[in-house]
Amino acid sequence: MSHDVMQNGNLFFNSFALPLFANSLFLGLLAYHAWSRRKHSGADYFSLLLVCSLVYSLFYGLEISSLNLTTALFFIRIEYLGIAFIPPVFLLFALSYTTSLKKFSAPLLTAIFLIPFITVALGMTIDRHTFIHEEIRLVDGELFPVVAIKPGIWYWVSLAYNNFCIFFSNLLFYRHWKRSESIYRKQLVILVTGVMVPWISDIIYNAGFVPWGIDPAPFALSFSAVMIYIGLFYYKFFDLAPAVREIVYEKIPDAVLVIDKKNRIADCNTAALNILEISRNEIGSPAHQLLDAWPELKQLIGETGEIAQTDLKKQRHGKEEWFDIDILELPDRSGAAAGRIIVLHDITRRKQIEEDLIATRQRAETANRAKSNFLANMSHEIRTPLNGLIGFSSLLMKTTLDEVQFNYITIVNSSAIQLLGLINDILDLSEIEAGKQVLSEENVSLEELAEQVIDMITYSAHSKNLGILLDIPAELRAATLRADPVRLKQILINLLGNAVKFTFEGHIELRIATAPTVQNPSEMNIVFSVKDTGIGISPENRIRIFEAFSQEDMSTTRKYGGTGLGLTISNKLLQMMGSSLQLESAPGDGSRFFFSLSLPVVETGKNIFPETVSGKKVLIVDDDIRNRELLARTLESASIVCESVSGDHDALEKAGFFDALIIDYHLADMNGIEISEKIRRSQTTKPVLLMFHATDDPALFSAARQSGKCTAVIKPVKRHQLLGLLTDPENTGSRNTLPPPEGMLKEIPEKYGTYSILIAEDNTTNMLLAKTVLGKILPEARILEAGNGKEAVAMFADHHPDLVFMDIHMPEMNGLEASAAIRRAEKGSRCPIIAMTADSLRELDGKLDTFGIDDAIIKPYTPDTVRKALSTWLQAKQE
Q1: Residue 592 to residue 216: CA distance in whole angstroms
Q2: Contacts of 429 (CB under 8 A, 6+ apart)
Q3: Beta bridge partners of 620
Q4: Residue 476 has pLDDT above 50, yes or no
């Protein structure tokens, strides 16, 4: 078809088309030039706009040079490629220039071109439908043949869309004009004028004010292009040097100096003049002459030839001011160094804030040290009278008292112990908050640690008739890990103590398990949990209970007592270990507190039972199903055959088929001793492990030992107790695994003659208590009394005692200095020195060995503590 169109007879020389062809050439040159400068805002879309206008102008010139309708329609189709896209490209240009384009999403930008694409598609098939033109014919015009049309529905849609694009573009320019400085508005006025010209020409054309058949739009677009070009490239922002100086240079608060190669101040803004206290007439003078009042900056400019950054202070108007100095290289057009730009940013306020923060931190540190010292002193001062209170009340409880007197002194003793616990909690919390708590890792057996913790709360739990359960898998019973045993025990004791306090029936379970970990194969992820069947915690109070001095509510505090510090301390200790305390609970359904720790593995994999017990059969008799499960799991891990029953009838029937029996004393119909005696009378005597509560009558323990091969143990049963049952059944009857009573503590070794004990103590109450306790343990001992460190050193030199109890805080010479003096003067065998102090072991950490002290007893102490120390160190001295 294009070949036919270009044949002779289809086109004629039309002098009216020549301006359109010239206009097209002009638009092409303008488009090329604009594209070469497309880095300017909106220039790329402006270039595309010129291309669309070129297409429209060129093919409109060919259209009016056509002699027949077929040829004219061919060029009209191509015109639509320009006509349809001029309005949306105009809009994109406006969006780009006013920096609004980034607010439009990709789908929305695509939608802008939906109508133009439909218009092009309809324009290409214009002879097949009536959407754009209901009627098209070629008629003789006044000047040349004209294509006469009757507009269709899409013509009006397209016209409305075009007007919308032009209106919205002008709206964007107007809003940008309102926000701009006055010096930039000239450029925007030129741009808006350029946008308005095609719109106005279209209105004139449709109103019939031009000769029929002549479309002024191509020429209007050219005029518009010239206006926009001038606005974009002639009045571009940073070619307006006065504006740059007025806004960017003069009005910024920072001081700016321009230094040339000869170190002269070539230029500076008003802020620099004010800061340097110079006049504008002095610009051009050498910098070293103008900066005598600021020698630090003068030296910096004179010595620094490179980029630099520093802070300098300056005295101005009797005040000290600080500035952040930036020295930047200033290149010329070729890139060579032409000088330097120096920017001074006032940071006086920032420096004042920094100094205030430093001063505040120092005051806080001073206050924190004062608080720590105060707490340490208060700890000592409070524990000193508590030592006498707890010690003498403990001694008094062991004397002959009537029932009322015994009750009174028991209340005094328990109140003193409760006060001591409160003091310890407050000290722990203050030390943690002051950052003085330090973790001390050791090799730890989790099984031993858990058993020790359970032993500490068993009595209080059994006194409330609560079951105590310990669940540790076999792989953890055999493992040795690195942890801080003291802090780990403290956390677990707090959790177990709370569980006992808030539980009235059921049981409390300490469970230690492993969780998967892939970060470090040399570590194990251990999950510790304490579960109870107590009162539970409501969801709204789960966060509050972790706050210091808080419990679930104030009524709980009054009903159950306590300070509410236990969970706070535990959580803070766990945070030091890289963990935190978690909670699962519901009112009435009990609570589960748990946390996880990644602990380095020292040893793992050894068997918890010898192979000789494999295949043995054990019958478990207990009405607590959970305790039966845990015992069975422990035994079955060593290939021991287990069967569990809940009552006496099944136990009596099945006892003969097993090698050993584990029987709970507290059964419904028949107690454990009665069952074991029946089994012994009716069958061959079997080794029996009888499980008791810690609060049971001691006479029951003796009765159990007399019932054949019976061993009395406190629930929960420990692994070494199970091992004894299976590996040494012949001696089971003579073995007692219960903790020995006070009178059965390790004996103090005998000595030819009497022991001589030196007590150094400045407090008369504590001196009397120490003498009383020693008098009951070693009635024949000779007690030497020293009221201060100097007396202690002199008495040691005169009497050479067998052992020294040394208070730390004493007048004239403290216990540490006295111990060091004794070590220097000591001759012959080493005399044990035991500190008796109200300080905590953490406060004494590292001091004992340094000053020659062998051991420490923390006040307040009990007679058992003193007996144990005497037994240990007097035995060591004899050896």
Answers
A1: 86
A2: 548, 565, 568, 569, 572
A3: 644, 662
A4: yes
In contact, 250 and 269? CB cutoff 8 Å: yes
For CA atoms 150, 153, 156, 158, the dihedral sign is negative
Maximal C-alpha separation, the chain: 150
pLDDT of residue 6: 46
Helix-helix angle 485-501:446-463, to 10 degrees: 20
d(CA 426, CA 417): 14
Local confidence band at 242 (pLDDT 50, 70, 90 cut-offs): very low
How does DSSP classify residue 8?
A: B
CA 813 – CA 806 distance, rounded (Å): 12
Alpha-carbon gap, residue 667 to 224, rounded angstroms: 105
Tell me the C-alpha distance between 40 and 42, whole Å. 6
Q: Return the bridge partners of 66, or none.
A: 11
The beta-strand segments (E) located in 210-318 are: 255-260, 265-268, 308-316
Q: Which of 177-181, 440-444, 561-565 has the highest mean pLDDT?
A: 440-444
C-beta of residue 481 within 8 angstroms of C-beta of residue 521:
no
Mean predicted confidence (pLDDT) in 772-794? 91
Residue 756 has a pLDDT of 92
The 3-class SS string of 111-144 reads HHCHHHHHHHHHHHCHHHCCCCEEEEEEEECCCC
Q: 137 CB contacts (<8 Å, ≥6 apart)?
A: 69, 147, 148
pLDDT at 305: 55
Instruction: Please provide the average confidence, as pLDDT, over all residues in the chain.
Output: 80
Residue 44 has pLDDT above 60, yes or no: yes
Angle at 498 between CA 497 and CA 500, to 5 degrees: 65
d(CA 86, CA 56): 9
What tokens does 467 get? 């079951």
Q: pLDDT tens digits, residue range 56-72? A: 888 888 888 888 888 88
Across 182-202, average pLDDT: 69
* Average confidence (pLDDT) over 337-364: 87
DSSP string covering 740-809: PPGGGSPPPPP-SS--EEEEE-S-HHHHHHHHHHHHHH-TTPEEEEESSHHHHHHHHHHH--SEEEE-SS
Residue-wise pLDDT for 104-137, tens only, equals 788 888 888 899 999 889 888 888 888 888 888 8
Q: Are 458 and 496 in contact (CB under 8 A)?
A: no
Q: Of all helices (H) and strands (E), which one includes residue 660?
A: strand 660-664
pLDDT at residue 148 in the model = 77
CA distance 86 to 49: 6
Other beta carbons within 10 angstroms of residue 289's beta carbon come to 12
By C-alpha distance, which of 456, 455, 451, 452 is closest to 421? 456
- The percent helix, strand, coil of the chain (3-state, each to 5) is 55, 20, 30
How far is CA 876 from each of CA 17, 82, 699, 854, rounded to the nearest angstrom?
Answer: 124, 108, 35, 11
Is the omega angle on the peptide bond into residue 716 within 30 degrees of 0, that is, cis? yes
Contact 87, 166 (CB under 8 A): yes
Which pairing describes strands 591-603 and 855-858: parallel, antiparallel, or unpaired? Answer: unpaired
Task: Give the ranges where 315-402 is alpha helix by DSSP (H).
Answer: 348-397
| Helices 185-207 + 86-97 axis angle, to 10 | 160
CA distance 410 to 397: 7
Q: What is the mean pLDDT of residues 405-433?
A: 74
Helices 86-97 and 153-179 pack at an angle, to 10 degrees, of: 10
Task: Decide: residue 640, CB within 10 A, 0-12 exposed, 13-18 middle, 19+ buried.
Answer: buried
C-alpha distances in angstroms, 700 versus 686, 729, 851?
19, 21, 49
Assess whether the previous peptide bond of 811 is cis (omega < 30° from 0): no
What interhelical angle do 217-229 and 18-36 show, nearest 10?
30
One-letter amino acid at 8 equals: N
